[in-house]
Amino acid sequence: MNTLALFLTSIALVSLSAFASGGEEQHEGTRKNDFYPNKPADKSLATRPAKATLLEPKAFSNVAPGTVTLKWQEAAGADSYRVQVATDPNFKWLVTQQDFVKATSLDVSNLEAGQQYFWRVYSMNPKNESGFTSSFASVSSFEVK
What we know:
The chain is mainly beta. It has one helix at about 1-20; strands at about 55, 60-65, 70-75, 80-85, 95-100, 105-110, 115-125, 140-145. Residues about 25 have low confidence and may be disordered.
């Protein structure tokens, strides 16, 4: 019985070893245990765009009712921006969201007097690999007088 158990254990170990190594040699352009070829190593596609620097309105400033122009500085690596304005700092209550804004400013109208607003801008580059299409957000706030 011991001989049979030892024999079965060694077969299991050999099989497990062959499975872990992929059972074949690694060929150029593929990774071990991978059926898909490696993507070309273009590091620019795996780099997030820089964070946008918010310019106007300044943080905690008071603005006149009417149309407010949000301005930010162009961010390196970005080809567009996502701009969100909300009435809460968690951006649960969005007033507006504009995606794929090509300019570095956006006019927002119909804001209520006496209300504080929070705004943020994400730098975007949809050509990047999925995990690197967006920067982290730059956030600020203002109040309409």
